Amino acid sequence: MPNAFTITAINDATESENRMHSDDVAARYGFKGALVSGVNVFGYMTQPLVAQFGAQWLSNTGFDVRFLLPAYEGDQVSVNSASAITPEHKDLPDRIETRAFNQAGTTLATLASWPLDLSDHPRAYAMRKQAQQEAAIYAHDKRPLLTWDVIQLEKAAPTWLWTPSAEDNARHVAAQRDTAACYFGPEALIHPYFLLDTCNRALMRLYILPAWIHVGTVGSMLRAIKINEEIAVDCQPTDRWEHKGHQFIRLYITMFSGNDLVFEADHTAIFKIAQK
Fold first, then answer.
1. Average pLDDT score over residue span 165-175
2. All domains of the chain, ordered by start, with CATH?
3. Which end of the chain has less Cβ packing within 10 Å, N or C?
4. CA distance 23 to 250
5. What are 125-150's pLDDT values in tens digits?
């Protein structure tokens, strides 16, 4: 299994629209400082997996990442992995359980990953059809402030044509201090940090969010995405709920290259944080 991995967490600026990555706003909600983004921590957790299994881990892989507690600037984030065959996952013999924890030994996040089974993904193609037929034209300056009442469940957002540039990918790779060869060169693959950061940006394209927290993503990486590849990103809100004073939203997000589905995910965030 992958060797243990440790890195000093940094508060990268790719999510500059999220004010939870500033000290003063985070303190208002009871945190000791600015939060390092969950997608950054996810990137850390993938590094020993790619080191062990190579670029093949970025394709035909399902994953479930959950962020339990925040990482802060300067934390020593350690990652370790173990294979796990449990009664509830008998059909996933290659399931890998990965955990990120800080210098105090506190678990910050968990990541389960497994080989994907073949599937036709009818849900993804149905949303794409809805987006093509029903979604309005995107207008960034018309985004509403995200509140409970503005969420329209199962309504497809306008398709976002996203072309990940070499420069943007390099910036994410540099923030991760990742040296894996698959993220460099003219055929570079986009980093998993960049992939989930793009899911966050899909949420921010729909709404204005003054302060929010990404809490988890369940996704399928059907094929690794290359730099300069044109990707059609579709999404729709699929659920909203309240728990312990927090209000949550879940988005279903798909990414297509031409007619081929390359990624899909259920992406969950707290959009109204209970103040302490």
1. 97
2. 5-272 (3.10.129.10)
3. C
4. 26
5. 999 999 999 999 999 999 999 999 99
How far, in Å, CA of 194 to CA of 201, rounded?
10
Report the 3 state secondary structure along the chain: CCCCEEEECCCCCCCCCCHHHCHHHHHHCCCCCCEECHHHHHHHHHHHHHHHHHHHHHCCEEEEEEECCCEECCCEEEEEEEECCCHHHCCCCCCEEEEEECCCCCEEEEEEEEECCCCCCHHHHHHHHHHHHHCCCCCHHHCCECCHHHCCCCCCCCCEEECCCHHHHHHHHHHHCCCCHHHCCCCCECCHHHHHHHHHHHHHHHCECCCCEEEEEEEEECCCCECCCCEEEEEEEEEEEEECCEEEEEEEEEEEECCEEEEEEEEEEEEECCCC
pLDDT > 70: what percent of the chain?
87
Q: Where does residue 144 fall: left (phi above 0), alpha (psi -120 to 50 degrees), or beta otherwise?
A: beta
pTM more than 0.85: yes
Q: pLDDT (tens digit, 9 = 90+) per residue, 2-39?
A: 567 899 888 775 544 554 445 555 555 556 667 889 99
